[in-house]
Specification:
The protein has 462 residues and is of the alpha+beta class. The protein has 12 helices and 19 strands. It is 24% helix and 11% strand. A hairpin with a 5-residue loop joins strand 4 and strand 5.
Length: 462
Amino acid sequence: MKRTVLAAFALAGCVTAPVPPIGTEPDVPATGGTEAMTGFDGQSNGFVTADIFQADQEEFDGIENIADGLGPLYNAQSCRECHQNPLSGGGSQVSEFRAGHLDAQGRFQAPRVPIARGTVFIEGRTLINDRAICPNAQFPDQEIQEHVPDTETIRTQRLSISLLGDGLVEAVADEFLRGLAARQCKETQGQICGLVVEVPVLEASDAYRVGRFGWKNQQATLLSFAADAYLNEMGITSRLQPDEVTKICDTVPDPEDNPAAQPSPAARQQARAARAPATAAAVEQPVADIDRFARFVRATKAPPRDTTLAATEGARRGSEVFDRAGCATCHVRTLVTAAEGTKINGGTFSVPAALANRLFHPFGDFLLHNVGTGDGIEISILEHHGRRFAYMQDKMSPTVDRIRTAPLWGLRMRSRLMHDGLSVTVRDAIGRHGGEATDARRRFDRLGDQEQSDLLTFLQSL
C-alpha cells in the first residue's frame, strides 16, 4: 500500500487530539495531563526499572568492533560517540556528511560513490561515511574509503542531535502533529505551514506514521531510528535493516544484530561487586541491540531548564518577547502525549503509563519547514527504509529544502547550532532564519537592545 507525502493543510475540524494555541500558549496548557520528568541525572523516567535502564545504557555506550559487525563503512563505534553531551543520549559536536546533485531536470539525485579503486559504486544513499574497516590485516589490499565525487555539488554537514526525552516525542499522536501544522497554516494565512511526511514503520508490516526523528523526519519510531543509525552510522545490520551497504571486507553473517541472552541487571551488579563475570544461568530474555537502544531512549528524561537563569527578570521578559516575535509558532512550547494504552507505531507499541498524558516543553513542532537553510538533500528511501520501500523515492522531493524545526530544549548544552553546526551563537542562528521564518527574524532585528538581550537570556535558560 503506497503512501504519499502529506502537506499539512488539514482543516481544524479534522483534529482529534488537543492542540495548544499557536504562538502564545502558556507553559502548561489546560489540556489535562501531567508534567513529564526532566533532568540530567542519568536516571530512568519510570518506563523501565533502574537496573534495566543501566543495562541498556551499557549497550548504548558499548564499543563495536569488526567481530561485532562494525562496517565495512561507518562513522562511529558506539551510539554514545555521537550522543553524549552532557550525558549518554545527549547531542554532540559530531557531524556526518551528505552529498548529491541535481539532474538535467533539476531533480535531486543521490551520489554514485566509487570505492575499491573505482570498481564498485555505492548508490542510493546521501550519506558519505567517514571511516572504513579496511585495509586491515585480513584485507591488506582492499581500498573502500568513500570520497565525495566532484560531480556531487550539493554538500552539507548534519549535526548529531540530542535523543533525551524522545520517548515523549514518539508518544505524541499523529493527529496532534497534523493538527498543529493545520493551525500554523491557518493562523499565519499560509505563511508558515509545517510539512507532515508519512514514512514507513520498519517494525510493522505496511504501516506508515508521521515522521518526527532526524533532520528530515525520515523516521517515525525510535526502533526504526535505532536500526537506521546502527546500519548507516556503524554499519551493523539488523532484522529491520538486513542489507549491508557493501559486502567488501565483510565477514560477519547478516543480520549482525541478533537477539542474545544478556546477563540480567542483578547478575551484572553482583558480578561487578565480586569482580567476576556474570554466570550463564543468570540471564534475561534475549534482546537485540536495536531494541535496547530504543528502550534506553524511551526511558530518558527530557532536558531540564536552567532554573536559576529561568527565574531571572531578564529571562521572564525574554519569554514574553519570544512569543511576541513569533518564535513560538514553530518552536512550540508545549506538546502532550497520547493516552495510556494508545497503540502507535503500526500497532507494535502501546503508550505506557510513564509516557502517557505527559505535558512536555520541547520548543519545537517536529515538522518540516523551509526557513532558508535547507540543505538541498532529499530523504533517501533506500538508505533509511530499505529496498522494499524504494518505490517511495519519488514522493520525497518536497523535503529537499526543508529541515525539521530544531527543538530548543537543552539549547544551553549546545556549542554549535542549526542543522549544519555552522552557527556558534544564538544571535548568528537567528540571523540565518529566512523563508517561512523571515518575518520572525525581522521582528527580532527591530527589537531594542534590551529586548534582544532578554530574549537571548531566555533562550540560554532552555
